[in-house]
Write a structure and sequence with these properties.
Length: 378
């Protein structure tokens, strides 16, 4: 009795992962093909990195997923290994190993699965498919605009008609923090409260600190500081910090370049967007659409990450969560092509030779053929 019960427990997937089959599987592959066409059209070269890496690639110093959310295990030599939770550190490690981003711009694209041990209460998948790009060795506003343009093109290519790419600026917030002289714990609390748009929490924390009134006003405005390009002028008016103003000027330049692409209507700005990934510098962005509460795209600039791998280089990238995008398309009733059903040829032992030859002939002509032997009476 115990043997049967134990066996049945393994007939379904563990919590947080799922099987993808039939039409959904072919739709997912079609979606990935369309996205890859965009990557290829911009000249990004494909790269594959291992599903697991040394723990140090995703350590606290790198600023990626918290250790408690990693799938960790050991190899025979006792080294701590981690299932890949995030592609950016993996691609950065590979780029530092095989390329010279200090001397040339490296453009790479990837497809693969990531693994994050989310809390079961969050209702998120623990294994998801990601597709993305990394542009390494380029600190220009043109690079920022190109990745935003690619994001828009990928979503249009997927079939979405209504979506928004929300762009933030990490350096703006960091510049204000430098003037505030808060301790690390208070900085993290403030970052979290602003990200959550917790207006009252931000107000309580800021007013409990001994900071100038103008700076206090800027922090209180941050959760409200989102909207179209007009919000850039308001952000500029809130501070005289030179670095913060340069951060706004960078967004203004990016927006002007996006007008050349013709994609500015898909972009809004949000100065309260502050990623949990500590490696981001400069712009960060997320793309949203109907049908999923999670972003379908996340990205940003990470100019200091490659320093961790021995080759400092300014970089920017984004990742598309294919599973979230597929869910959004389904809930918006946007259909994707399914693989055409094969021609089925049935045969018996008597006409087996003729059936196989006919099947091969059709396959050579480009037709999918499935051979099925007829059941014969005993």
């Amino acid at each position: 009795m115990r043997r049967k019960r134990l066996c049945s427990e393994f007939f379904h997937t563990p919590e947080g992962v799922r099987d993808i089959y039939n039409g959904e599987c072919s739709q997912k592959h079609h979606l990935q093909t369309e996205i890859r066409k965009v990557f290829d059209s911009y000249g990004y070269e494909e790269i594959e990195t291992p599903s697991f890496e040394y723990f140090e690639v995703f350590s606290r110093e790198v600023g990626t997923i918290p250790s408690k959310d990693l799938y960790k295990f050991f190899d025979r030599e006792g080294n701590t290994l981690v299932l890949r939770p995030d592609f950016t550190p993996s691609v950065s490690r590979a780029c530092a190993t095989y390329f010279n981003p200090e001397h040339q711009v490296i453009t790479l694209s990837y497809t693969g699965n990531t693994f994050i041990n989310n809390s079961s209460y969050q209702g998120r998948l623990k294994e998801t498919t990601q597709m993305g790009v990394e542009r390494i060795g380029d600190d220009s506003a043109e690079a920022d605009a190109e990745l935003l343009a690619m994001t828009v093109e990928c979503l249009l290519k997927a079939g979405l008609k209504e979506f928004q790419v929300s762009v933030g600026q990490v350096d703006y917030f960091k510049s204000l923090l430098q003037d505030a002289n808060l301790d690390i714990e208070e900085e993290e609390n403030l970052r979290s409260l602003i990200s959550q748009k917790n207006y009252f929490g931000v107000e309580d924390l800021v007013r409990s600190q001994n900071i100038p009134e103008s700076l206090e006003k800027a922090f209180l405005e941050l959760p409200h500081l989102f909207g179209s390009s007009e919000i850039l002028q308001k952000a500029r008016s809130l501070t005289d910090n030179i670095c913060a103003i340069k951060a706004v000027e960078r967004l203004e330049e990016i927006y002007e370049i996006l007008k050349i692409y013709g994609y500015e209507k898909y972009v809004s700005f949000d100065f309260g967007m502050l990623s949990k990934f500590q490696y981001y510098t400069g712009i960060i962005f997320q793309a949203y659409t109907y049908g999923t509460g999670e972003p379908v795209v996340k990205g940003g600039r990470y100019n200091n990450l490659l320093k961790h791998f021995g080759k400092p280089a300014a970089s920017i990238g984004f990742g598309i969560t294919v599973d979230n995008l597929l869910m959004a398309l389904s809930r918006q009733k946007i259909s994707l092509p399914e693989k055409k059903a094969p021609v089925i040829l049935t045969y018996t032992e008597a006409n087996r030779r003729e059936a196989i030859l006919e099947a091969q002939k059709l396959r050579n002509e480009g037709t999918a053929v499935a051979l099925r032997r007829e059941k014969e009476d005993c």
